[in-house]
Write a structure and sequence with these properties.
Structural class: alpha/beta
Oligomer: single chain
CATH topology of one domain: D-Maltodextrin-Binding Protein, domain 2
Number of strands: 13
Distance between the termini: 44 Å
Helix content: 25-40%
Shape: elongated
Number of helices: 9
Length: 313
């Protein structure tokens, strides 16, 4: 076995975190204002010091080895603790806060993100929020493009989603259980109903989020995706789906949690079915969450407690 060099520097840890986040040594070098050869040499030196391969280099960029994923978790904790120490004892301003979240198209996820950003005490920050497809959420978290993802599972898709997460080294953490609702325009005749049935929806366009090439029923964002609909429209973003609710009196099925401030023209009406929706967050099993990610999840919990849901995590 090769003898390990001693000592890992804070700068190397910070550089490694940037390389993992960007998936590219060149991109990380640009962000940190160093040359690509310098960054590449720093990563090779880091691997020599820890005695393990941390990065897989290919023409498509950089991915982490299993050791690299575990090392990243420790590196984030060290850098975060150093920043807190400097703030407390050296009167340094709060460090630049970084967090990436990938989510299915949920109003509460955006609402919580807004609250988190407003509550940030950092003079500078860099956050990312990706509303995207189910498969892409899992890929974002697996490749560390995002630290955590928000998605749903139920009795129909649970086994498939859980297996895919296990194969990707990820874990699903339940957040809450919600009863299904339909989202419709305030002008829709069903908006005044206390409850609707599937029969009530028969003549309306069903609006669903397109899942691209992974358009399996198991990756659908809406429950009851296997039920046929005479009129169906697939869309790619939440703004479009809300516009179609208003323009075509269409509907979609979701959690019933919607922000009056962010989406004032849309209402949620309970759907009478024997189903429940389990919402949770996914992350790497070997990487502890950063404090900023924990703050985001706290805001998610704060948002959903304002609605009739059952918190489970």
């Amino acid at each position: 076995m090769a003898r390990r060099a001693s000592g890992v520097t804070l700068q190397q840890l910070q550089s490694f975190i940037e390389v993992a986040a960007e998936g590219s040594i060149t991109a990380a070098a640009d962000l940190l204002y160093v040359s690509q050869p310098t960054m590449s040499a720093a990563m090779k030196d880091l691997e020599a010091r820890v005695g393990r391969a941390l990065l897989v280099r290919s023409a498509r960029g950089i991915t982490l080895t299993a050791d690299g994923v575990e090392f990243l978790g420790y590196a984030r904790q060290v850098v975060e603790q150093v920043a807190l120490l400097e703030q407390r004892y050296l009167d340094r301003p709060p460090s630049r806060r970084l967090l990436g979240v990938s989510t299915q198209h949920y109003s509460f996820a955006v609402d919580a993100f807004v609250r988190m950003v407003k509550a940030s005490d950092a003079a500078e920050y860099e956050f990312s929020l990706r509303e995207t497809r189910t498969w892409d959420i899992i890929e974002d978290v697996r490749t560390l493009r995002s630290e955590l993802g928000i998605l749903y599972r139920n009795d129909f898709n649970r086994n498939v989603i859980d297996k895919l997460l296990r194969d990707s080294g990820l874990v699903f953490h339940p957040l809450f259980l919600a009863d299904p609702h339909i989202f419709v325009s305030r002008k829709n005749p069903l908006a005044a109903r206390e409850r609707v049935t599937l029969d009530d929806l028969a003549g309306l366009p069903r609006l669903t989020f397109d899942q691209g090439t992974n358009n399996s029923f198991y990756f659908a964002e809406e429950i009851l995706s296997t039920l046929s609909s005479a009129q169906e429209i697939r869309v790619s973003d939440r703004a479009t789906i809300f516009n179609l609710m208003i323009g075509l009196e269409g509907y979609t099925i979701s959690t019933g949690i919607i922000s009056d401030d962010l989406d004032p023209e849309i209402v949620a009406v309970p759907l009478q079915v024997d189903e429940r929706i389990e919402i949770g967050w996914i992350a790497h099993s070997a990487i502890p969450l950063t404090a900023q990610a924990q703050k985001y999840l706290d805001e998610v919990r704060a948002v959903v407690t304002e609605f009739d849901v059952e918190l489970i995590g």
